[in-house]
Amino acid sequence: MKALDRIQNRKMLHLAHHQRWFTRKTLSDSVVVELISLDHQGCPLYYTTYNYGAALSTATDQLWAGGALGLNLSGLGLSQFVANDTYSYLGQWDEGKVRLTHQEFNGGNNKVVLRDNASNLSDHATHVAGTLVARGINPLIRGMAWQAQLDSYDWHADVSEMALAASRGMLISNHSYGTLSGWVYGDLSGNYGWHWFGNPLVNSRRDYGFGYYGEQTRQWDLIAHQAPYYLIVKAAGNDRDDYGPGLGVAHWVRDPAQGWNWVQSFQTRQSDGPYFSIGWKGNAKNILTVGAVDDVSGDMRKSQNIQMSNFSSWGPTNDGRIKPDICGNGIGVLSTSSIQDNHYYESSGTSMASPNVAGSLLLLQEHYENSTERTVYAGGYPQGAGNPHGR
């Protein structure tokens, strides 16, 4: 399957070169965009990071040593030995590789393991990894599962890699990215302004990827269905407040008659939100889609203390399902940086909320494995019917 991915990727890059499409770009707000596939009509599709240009909110700190629940959970030892190697129960796919030498990861025991040939050192991937597993050298950024190990991949060939990782025992993976949809402001065409990433052959007014359940989404659902103890945790996206340029204002759109290259347009198109603003794989049925709320400063059980961010994408899906499934802290999250080994920075977005949830869920798995009475099981399954991980 991965060999097929490589062949298809070479063909796509050859076509991109011929048509003069950009293949990778970092926007002024540090959002990374990269060509990843084509839709059914040959329109280029791009992955994008969901940073928008943690523990208190989910009460995860109550699970740590010294927490009110007395559980002392940290993610320590949640891994499995397979084929002469140790694979973590926790993984992340992102746009590049984590800075392994950062003081939050560099402890001499493979805290973060790069599982593929990722070549681009990534600030985004490093920040996400810190929210998941940072040791807490800086106590302000202790990861949710701060003693866990992390298997890290870039987003190329994610489908085949996820299937393989699940077969090796991975239980939870974080995906703080998605397919670029709707309105984006930047210089993606070489001209600064609003760019619309919809396919005008399908719908010239609204990006059909919002709320859409297609073959690429089905692939993720199929992985989750075939590996029922593996949970894919994915950021919902940050498109709810992308309103575009307004009625009849100049913007840029890809023209299929011009080889999907950019042309200026004045056609009126719809805004991305507020509703039906989750794109593509975020609409999968068997995954956990995560929205972003503001950090909670008081008792998280009081709903009036929870404030939705202005950017986090909302459902429903086109077939009426409610999304996102859950929310985590995604505003002003302090975590690790790839710039230096002791550098940290704040970032916002559903990219930050998703690892907040994924790392916390790993601690629930640890709590189950620490329980002498195996009473936690998946709804609808009798006790004892789970796998050795109890899921």
What's the arrangement of secondary structure elements?
Layout: H1 2-19, E1 24-26, E2 32-38, E3 44-49, H2 55-58, E4 79-82, E5 85-88, E6 90-94, E7 112-114, H3 123-133, E8 150-154, H4 158-167, E9 172-175, E10 177-179, E11 183-186, E12 193-196, H5 215-226, E13 231-235, E14 251-255, E15 261-265, E16 288-293, E17 326-329, E18 333-336, E19 344-347, H6 350-370
Parallel strand pairs: 6-8, 6-9, 7-8, 9-13, 12-14, 13-16, 16-17
Antiparallel strand pairs: 1-2, 2-3, 3-10, 4-5, 11-12, 14-15, 18-19
Helix pairs in contact: 3-6, 4-5
Notes on the structure:
The protein has 391 residues and is α/β, with parallel strands linked by helices. It has one domain (2-192, 209-370): Rossmann fold, CATH 3.40.50. The protein is built from 6 helices and 19 strands. Strands 7-8-6-9-13-16-17 form a 7-stranded parallel β-sheet, sandwiched between helices. Strands 1-2-3-10 form a 4-stranded antiparallel β-sheet.
State the gist of this model:
With 391 residues, the chain is of the alpha/beta class.
Characteristics of this structure?
7-stranded parallel beta sheet; single chain; 391 residues; Rossmann fold; alpha/beta; 19 strands; globular
Cα-atom radius of gyration: 21 Å
Q: The CATH topology is what?
A: Rossmann fold
Order of helices and strands: HEEEHEEEEHEHEEEEHEEEEEEEH
Mean pLDDT: 88
* Class of secondary structure makeup: alpha/beta
Helix content: 10-25%
